[in-house]
Description:
- The protein has 382 residues and is of the alpha/beta class.
- Strand 6 and strand 7 (176-177) form a beta hairpin.
- The chain contains 12 helices and 11 strands.
- The chain is 39% helix and 12% strand.
- Bound molecules: pyridoxal-5'-phosphate (PLP).
Amino acid sequence: MARPGRGPEVxxxxxxxxxxxxxxxxxxxxxxxxxxxxFTLGAEVEAFEREFASYCGVDHAVGLSxxxxxxxxxxxxxxxxxxxxxxxxxxxxxxTAEAVSQVGASLRLVDVxxxxxxxxxxxxxxxxxxRTGCIVPVHLYGRMVEMxxxxxxxxxxxxxxxxxxxxxxxxxxxGRRAGAIGDAGCFSFYPAKNLGGWGDGGALITSNPxxxxxxxxxxxxxxxxxxxxxxxxxxxxLDALQAAVLRVKLPQLDRxxxxxxxxxxxxxxxxxxxxxxxxxxxxxxxxxxxHQFVVRCSTRDRLREHLAVHGVASGVHYPxxxxxxxxxxxxxxxxxxxPTVERLASEICSLPLYPGMSGEAVExxxxxxxxxxxxAVERDAA
Length: 382
Ligand SMILES: *Cc1c(COP(=O)(O)O)cnc(C)c1O
C-alpha cells in the first residue's frame, strides 16, 4: 500500500536499529554470547528465565523457540490431545489454532465480544461441552481478556486455562500480569512484539512446577540427563542469542508499554469526530498495552488507500478470520457462522503506534484520518 518507490513516512512499527543506544547495547550482548560459544540453553537462557518469571510474578518461565511452540507444548503439558476440545476465539493470529491442531485436539472456534474483540464470559459459557479440555483466552492487540468471569467459569467446569499472551507482554489484570492468571501463559518474542528478540523465540510461564517441568522436558527431546530420553519431545528451545537480546530489552518493557498507552490516549483524543471508532475503554479496569492500535471504520479499504497516499502505513489484524481460511476449511464453518468476528475482519484497521513515535508522526496519522473523514462527508453529500 506504500507509495511507489518509497516506504511510508510513518511505519506501523519500529525495529531496534532505529534506536542507536539500544542497538549498541544489544550488539554487546550478542558479542558476549558469541565469545562464550554457548548457544543452546545454558546460563544466558537460565538468567532470562529467572528475570522473566520474576517480572511476570510467577515461579517458572521456560524459554522456547516460538510462541506457537509455547502454546503447543503448554497444551501437551496440560494433557490436551486427541478426543479433547479446546475453546479458542476465532479473532486471533492463526498460531493459536495451529497449536491445538498440532497436539491432535479438536478446535472449538468461538465468536468474540464486539467491544473488546476478545473472548467473553457469555460466549465461553455457551461453548463448553462434555469434551472441553482447555480454554485458550487470547489477550489480542495487548488488551486483557476480562479474566475474572472467564476463570470463574473455567474453575467451575474444572477446565484448565492456557493464556495466549503473545501480544500482551507486561499487561496487568487486577494487579496480575498477563500469562500469570490461568494455569500457564504463553509468549512470543517475534521481533515486532512488545518484547521482541532478533529472530524467533517464546516462553511459557506458570507457578505450577509440574507443568514447568514437563515443558522443560518436551522442549529438548525429553532428555534428562543427557541422552536419557524419558519422554518423546522435540527441539523447541529458546537460544542463547535471543535470551541475551531479551535480557537487554526486558528492563525497558514497562516504560515502552507506558509510552504505548500514552500514544493511544493521544491518538484516541485526536481521532474524535472522524469516521474511525477508536478502541473502547475497558469496563473492568483491565489493562491494554497496545501491541496494535486497532480502530473500526465501515469504509476501511478506502481509508487504507487514503492513508497510504498520505505516507501512513496501516495493517489489518486479521483480514481473514481463522475459521474462514483455506487452512481450516475442513471445519465447515460457512459465512456468518461467527458474525462478530467476520464483521470485525471487514472493518478493523491497525494504525501506527510504537515506542519512540514522534508527535509529528501522531499528527500526520491523525491529519490523514481527518482529511479522509472530510472527503467521506463530501462524497456522501454529493
Ligand atoms: C505472534 C502470536 C503467536 C505466535 O507466536 P510465534 O512466535 O510467531 O510462533 C500466537 N498467538 C498470537 C496471538 C500471536 O500474536
